[in-house]
Amino acid sequence: MDLQEFKSKKPQFVKEASKCKDELEFTRLAEKHGIKFGAGCFEKAYALFCSPNTKELSEDSLENVSGGANFQIAEIGLGGPSDTFIVTL
Prior knowledge:
single chain, alpha+beta
């Protein structure tokens, strides 16, 4: 799954992430939404989703990340009430 598809599947997470004030708040929000980050990608995801001047991901942000960070996002059903999303580089 790419970032645009992730954004369409988790719009509430994207909206709430833009309001996070620090990494701890972002971590708690990700846990609440069933999102886990692989080694080395947390800081890049935090910078992307928690930009202080952005309420949602712009097309430029998506292009920059897709060209630079190359996130891979997997949706995994673990038998709980909702699926888990794993974000890696």
